Amino acid sequence: MKTLEEAYQDCHTIINRHSKTFSKAFSLLPSGKRKAVWAIYAFCRSVDDIVDDGENPVEELAEFERQFTLFLEKQLPLDHSMWTALDDVFTKFPVDKQAFTDMITGQKMDLVKSRYQTMEEVELYSYYVAGTVGLMLLPILAPKNHEQLEVGGKALGTAMQITNILRDIGEDIQRGRIYLPQDLMDKHGVSVEQIQAGKVTDAFIDLWEEMAERAEQLYDMALESIDYYPIDARFPVKGAAYMYRAILNSVRRNHYDVYTTRSFITQEEKQDILSQL
């Protein structure tokens, strides 16, 4: 069995491999909080990978959910780095267990639903798969007043997921999923066939920008409560918001090509954002 430190380092490897933006932002946290973020990210990544890449995702997700129930009941053997690290997190911080359960619920949605009719539906989905992550992190970032920050935490996670949706349209269509809501597609005259063909038209850009405007409203909402975070968490949260928001501008610089180009922000851009906080 690995030591606690080795378990946390395994979680650190996962966050560095899959989300350099997230890792960079929260690297500013003190050690204890930083490691807890690694463990929570590893949990979220595990669920996400089952849904996107599992050989039998329905059965695998059901098994993961069973393991999480045993974990909460203190009956799961801690023979995996993620569970070992997460057990330490649950011991040290006032975690919101329901947020973890809701996140699994959100991932289940991807197994049964591939189209969304309204922006409200997209936002609800975004809450379940990412707004929940905000609620998971709040007791780590602000253990003494995390309840006060829930509205902003949900908004930030939801904004990040809408950003993911707008960046990953091409990848999602390969998985048979379209997260662009049908009502906005109808409003702007964008068809499923156009999305499947990877066409960037003026109508598509208008649709994309309307969703991006909503994401930016949610980023603004999240930042309204930034001064209520403890000082050691204030800059990491602000950095995460600004760096993720910058992905939207990266897509714009790439002329909205979300089909053949994956938009990202460079290390230099990240450093520049952090230096201006």
SSE layout and pairing:
Layout: H1 4-18, H2 20-26, H3 31-53, H4 57-72, H5 81-92, H6 97-112, H7 119-141, H8 150-167, H9 169-174, H10 182-188, H11 192-197, H12 202-223, H13 231-253, H14 267-275
Helix pairs in contact: 1-2, 1-3, 1-5, 2-13, 3-4, 3-5, 3-6, 3-7, 4-6, 6-7, 7-8, 8-12, 8-13, 10-12, 12-13, 13-14
Can you offer a commentary on this structure?
This protein has 277 residues and is mainly alpha-helical. It has a single domain (4-275), classed as Farnesyl Diphosphate Synthase (Orthogonal Bundle). The chain has helices spanning 4-18, 20-26, 31-53, 57-72, 81-92, 97-112, 119-141, 150-167, 169-174, 182-188, 192-197, 202-223, 231-253, 267-275. It has 14 helices and no strands. It is globular and about 55 Å long. α1 crosses α5. The mean pLDDT is 95. 73% of the residues lie in helices and 0% in strands. Pathway: Carotenoid biosynthesis. InterPro entries: Isoprenoid_synthase_dom_sf (IPR008949), Squ/phyt_synthse (IPR002060), Squalene/phytoene_synthase_CS (IPR019845), Trans_IPPS_bact-type (IPR044843), Trans_IPPS_HH (IPR033904). Its EC number is 2.5.1.32. This is Phytoene synthase. Keywords: Carotenoid biosynthesis, Transferase.
**CATH H-level name... which superfamily?**
Farnesyl Diphosphate Synthase
The CATH topology: Farnesyl Diphosphate Synthase
Overall geometric form: globular
Number of spatially distinct domains = 1
Provide the structure class.
Answer: mainly alpha
Number of helices: 14
Number of strands: 0
The top level CATH class name: Mainly Alpha
- Radius of gyration computed on alpha carbons: 19 Å
- Summarize the main sheet: none
Mean pLDDT: 95
